[in-house]
């Protein structure tokens, strides 16, 4: 067996210890004689797995009691619609901050269901900055304020939670959740697709303040209504049981690692050394304002873009894979989620250095 250092933005690398445990438990989960995939979601074994996963997530994020944790399907993209279906009354308007491709997708979807007012946009800087808070045109009548704490494609991350007064703050945390501690009480609703820091694709996590439940529009389909998920412990229908179980194993692994403070320390160090090398290299370049560089996704360009294909091929041959930038921006991108070991970042930096030297 030879595992690579996989820098994919998602689906992304999972902790090896978790994969090994899932393998060991695959055919016969804890003497049940079956795999988790084969269990009834309503049986005592799976309900225990589900409850433990939620309890561990609550511990990790210190989720207050008046928040519900929902295990949903449809990816973060489905949340772009579920958020307005549940929180935006007909005829009302919501505030959206535009900091990149994922913000734009959320805005476009909300615009199909109501009014999405863009409070500020970093599009003029090609999404390499975050618009200064003083320039945001918040609407006093807005139903909520939506933003994307980490823009996965350009690698822009909010290092602070923005202050938006008493409006519910809604955050697409797909590519930053569990990478550092957050104060959940500052948010009305948090959502995240699983396939980066949570587990395999197919599961979507929603953390919602209880008072925001019960307000879905009347024509909201059952399976898009947060309240239905909350009332049925996310088991109105058959949930993605295996993904939920694997997420639970990841949460346990994170707790064993020392929880989110330990992850934050490790993630800051991983990203810090890669940015430091890029900036000092004279060959690679990251265009993002250093005040908002992502810890999770580090895009970079080569001084000579005709070498891109060679770089990717040689990196893959060295066991460093999935380094191509998103197709809409090109260049390179190294995603450094929780499960990327520090050794992977060291190997990448050493490869990048050799690549330049060989062309010296
Ligand atoms: N939001 C962000 C910030 C993302 O990074 C992604 C996926 N890369 C999405 C939304 C879309 O997620 P999904 O594929 O789960 O719909």
What is the CATH C level class of the largest domain, in words?
Alpha Beta
Main beta sheet: 7 strands, mixed
Total count of helical runs of at least 4 residues: 9
**General shape:** globular
Low-confidence stretches: none
* H/E element sequence: EHHEHEHEEEEEEEHHHEEHEEH
Name its key features.
binds 4'-deoxy-4'-aminopyridoxal-5'-phosphate, three-stranded antiparallel sheet, 9 helices, alpha/beta, Aspartate Aminotransferase, domain 1, 360 residues, 2 domains, Aspartate Aminotransferase, domain 2, single chain, 35% helix
Description:
It is globular and about 65 Å long. It is of the alpha/beta class and 360 residues long. Helix 1 (16-25) crosses helix 6, helix 3 packs across helix 4 and helix 7 (259-281) runs parallel beside helix 9 (342-359). The chain has nine helices and 14 strands. It folds into two domains: 17-256, Type I PLP-dependent aspartate aminotransferase-like (Major domain) (Aspartate Aminotransferase, domain 2, 3-Layer(aba) Sandwich), CATH 3.40.640.10; 259-359, Aspartate Aminotransferase, domain 1 (Alpha-Beta Complex). The longest helix has 23 residues, at 259-281. The model has no long low-confidence stretch (mean pLDDT 97). Strands 2-10-9-8-5-3-4 form a seven-stranded mixed β-sheet. Strands 11-12-14 form a three-stranded antiparallel β-sheet, covered by helices on one side.
């Amino acid at each position: 067996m030879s595992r690579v250092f996989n820098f994919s933005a998602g689906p992304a690398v999972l902790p090896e210890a978790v994969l090994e445990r899932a393998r060991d438990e695959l055919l016969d989960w804890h003497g049940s004689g079956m795999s988790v995939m084969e269990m009834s979601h309503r049986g005592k074994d799976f309900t225990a797995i589900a409850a433990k996963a939620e309890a561990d997530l609550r511990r990790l994020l210190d989720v207050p009691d008046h928040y519900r944790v929902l295990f949903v399907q449809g990816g973060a993209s489905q949340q772009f619609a579920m958020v307005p279906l549940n929180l935006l009354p007909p005829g009302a308007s919501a505030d959206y901050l535009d900091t990149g491709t994922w913000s734009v997708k959320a805005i476009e979807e909300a615009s199909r269901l109501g009014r999405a007012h863009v409070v500020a946009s970093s599009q003029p800087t090609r999404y390499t900055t975050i618009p200064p808070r003083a320039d945001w045109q918040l609407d006093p009548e807005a139903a909520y304020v939506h933003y994307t704490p980490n823009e996965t494609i350009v690698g822009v991350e909010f290092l602070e939670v923005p202050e938006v007064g008493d409006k519910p703050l809604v955050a697409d945390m797909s590519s930053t959740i569990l990478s550092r501690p957050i104060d959940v009480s500052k948010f009305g609703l948090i959502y995240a697709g699983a396939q980066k820091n949570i587990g395999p694709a197919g599961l979507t996590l929603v953390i919602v303040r209880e008072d925001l439940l019960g307000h879905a529009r009347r024509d909201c389909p059952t399976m898009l209504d947060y309240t239905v998920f909350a009332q049925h412990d996310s088991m109105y229908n058959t949930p993605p049981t295996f993904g939920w179980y694997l997420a639970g194993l990841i949460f346990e692994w994170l707790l064993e690692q020392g929880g989110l403070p330990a992850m934050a320390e490790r993630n800051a160090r991983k990203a810090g050394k890669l940015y430091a090398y890029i900036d000092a290299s004279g060959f690679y370049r990251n265009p993002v304002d250093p005040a908002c560089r992502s810890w999770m996704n580090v895009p970079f360009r080569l001084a000579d873009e005709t070498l891109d294909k060679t770089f990717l091929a040689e990196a893959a041959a060295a066991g460093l894979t999935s380094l191509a930038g998103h197709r809409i921006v090109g260049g390179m991108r190294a995603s450094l989620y929780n499960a990327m070991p520090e050794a992977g970042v060291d190997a990448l930096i050493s490869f990048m250095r050799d690549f330049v030297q060989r062309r010296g």
